[in-house]
Amino acid sequence: MTRLRYRILFAKTEAMRWTGHLDLQRAWERLLRRAGVPIAYSEGFHPHPKIQIGAALPLGVTGENELVDIETDRACDPDSSAARLNGHAPPGIRILRIEERAEGSPGLEKVILAGEYAAAPLEGAWPADLPRRIADLLGSSELSRERRGKKYDLRPRILSLGLDGNTLRMRLSLLPEATGRPDEVLAALGADDVAAEIKRERLVLRETTPLRNPQVE
């Protein structure tokens, strides 16, 4: 059976800020069905729709340029499909663009390198000595942290970190074996008690034929 692959660039906005990765996957399944996109399914006794969301967002974090790959049973026009999807999308999902992928092109798990995040206090400002804390963090050789009972070193997962006015910008690794999280960076800075809006502005890809918005290296 001939299958075609498409990559969808979308935004996960405020209405889905607290929607977890599995629920987002289910939302995509429902959305594709409602929009009449001929999604392909895996074979076997329990077939699953061929949908792959790239790099799960932490709860509470929005994404401006997120990616999902799908496979379909027949060809779809990217522009009209994007329009239909937006017509059926729930609050919190906005389709930006769809592009067809070449046969044999790598999946998202092989091309996503990092994510670029921006965090800003909902009210007021960061602690006055945050620049010093950032310098101390970046100067450290190791940042021992624990996630789900397992210890790991956060430091190599922080690729860049700095203040841009009142916005804390960070580029964090999203490699499967080393994923950085913005909330853990804030905790390492001792700034996790500051209520902040955190968004992932773009994904950094390894590809040579990217969608336009994600940054490519």
Give an account of the 3D structure.
This protein is α+β, with helices and mostly antiparallel strands and 217 residues long. The chain contains five helices and twelve strands. It has helices spanning 21-34, 78-88, 108-111, 130-139, 182-188; strands at 4-12, 51-53, 61-72, 93-101, 112-121, 144-147, 150-153, 158-164, 167-175, 178-179, 196-205, 215-216. The strands form two sheets. Strands 1, 2, 3, 4, 5, 8, 9, 10, 11 and 12 form a ten-stranded mixed beta sheet that branches. Strands 6-7 form a two-stranded antiparallel sheet. Strand 2 (51-53) and strand 3 form a beta hairpin. The longest helix has 14 residues, at 21-34. The radius of gyration is 19 Å and the shape is elongated.
Q: What Rg, in angstroms, do the CA atoms define?
A: 19 Å
Order of helices and strands: EHEEHEHEHEEEEEHEE
Percent of residues in helices comes to: 10-25%
Low-confidence stretches: none
Mean residue pLDDT: 92
Q: What does the main sheet amount to?
A: 10 strands, mixed
Bin the strand percentage.
Answer: 35-45%
Quickly give the structural class: alpha+beta
Strands, total number: 12
Overall 3D form:
elongated
End-to-end distance: 34 Å
Number of helices: 5
